[in-house]
Specification:
The chain has about 300 residues and is mostly helical. About 50% of the residues lie in helices and about 5% in strands. It has 13 helices and three strands. The protein has a three-stranded antiparallel β-sheet. α5 crosses α9 and α6 packs antiparallel against α8.
């Protein structure tokens, strides 16, 4: 079995059996290719069925000098999954990463924006510019619905259920969920759709996509990142801001204002509640208020 064949088979497995998104599959492929490049660079001739623990340990020792612990852990996890797949398909009997531990990682808390910073960014938008209405609608949708950037770029007009005040979001692994639509978010989507988008010459393949670039085609992830970064700089927000920062802010602000954690999980499209629980660590003052409001022994009397 060649590396090329094994990696292609694994990618198909991740897509068909696991239902992973294309970006996630590319990440796994990239990490596997890094391992194969290391083998070639060190003149180690081993196919996927011959790789042993000692070889993997040498590779990990090398990358530990080059990349951060979080990236090391991701590569180790990816390799472990790849060899587990080969065992599942009965190509191998053992996993060379079975006894290899990932580096210990502290829980990384997500960066968030406060309401004043979000308002400053929306006010920094030049509403007289051709793309001003669109960019305002993008920011309001990111913050108002907690979308991933890939979910935003793939949002369709047919996904807008204004009568019910919901949007249909297609997330990781093509899993769909309904997310409530706040009045302010709906307002700016409608303004963009009815006052700007309707006058564009739209590419036939992009007729149903909500957010379009100047050429009438779907927007890329990179374009959304650039818009957000430029607005943060213009608004004087001295934080590392990305589209995902709005998603984190959406979840954090809901939790701070008393929303149920499981409701937040559903709106974010998290498969596991443990992923959503990271937001309980963002603002300890919120937890203190919960104790003060609900615990029967909140009073010293």
């Amino acid at each position: 079995m060649t590396w090329r064949q094994a990696i292609e088979d694994y990618k198909n497995y991740l897509h068909i059996e696991r239902g992973l998104a294309a970006n996630s599959i590319k990440g796994y492929e990239r990490d596997l290719l890094r391992f194969t490049y290391w083998l070639d660079g060190n003149k180690i001739v081993l196919d996927p069925l011959q790789v042993d623990t000692e070889t993997v340990q040498s590779f990990i020792y090398q990358i530990a000098k080059e990349i951060a612990p979080r990236s090391q852990a991701r590569i180790i996890s990816g390799l472990r999954g790849f060899f587990a797949y080969l065992i599942f398909e009965k190509y191998r009997k053992t996993n060379p990463l079975e006894l290899i531990e990932s580096p210990k990682l502290g829980r990384k808390l997500p960066a968030t924006l406060n309401l004043q910073e979000i308002d400053a960014m929306t006010q920094a938008i030049d509403m007289g510019a051709p793309q001003g209405q669109r960019n305002r609608a993008i920011l309001e949708t990111l913050y108002g619905c907690g979308l991933r950037v890939s979910e935003l770029t793939q949002l369709k007009i047919s996904d807008l259920f204004f009568d019910e005040d919901f949007i249909l979001v297609t997330g990781k692994g093509d899993k769909q969920r309904f997310v409530p639509l706040a009045p302010l978010t709906r307002k700016y989507i409608e303004l963009y759709k009815e006052q700007v988008r309707v006058h564009q010459q739209i590419d036939p393949k992009s007729q149903d996509l909500l957010f379009l670039n100047r050429r009438g085609k779907g927007m890329s992830r990179a374009m959304i990142f650039t818009i957000v970064k430029q607005l943060a700089e213009k608004a004087g927000v001295n934080k590392k801001v990305s589209p995902h920062t709005f998603r984190h802010s959406f979840a954090t602000h809901l939790l701070e204002n008393g929303a149920d954690l499981r409701a937040i999980q559903q709106m974010l499209g998290h498969e596991s509640i443990t992923t959503t629980e990271v937001y309980t660590h963002v603002d300890s003052s919120h937890l203190a208020r919960v104790i003060d409001r609900f615990h029967p022994r909140k009073s010293a009397n």
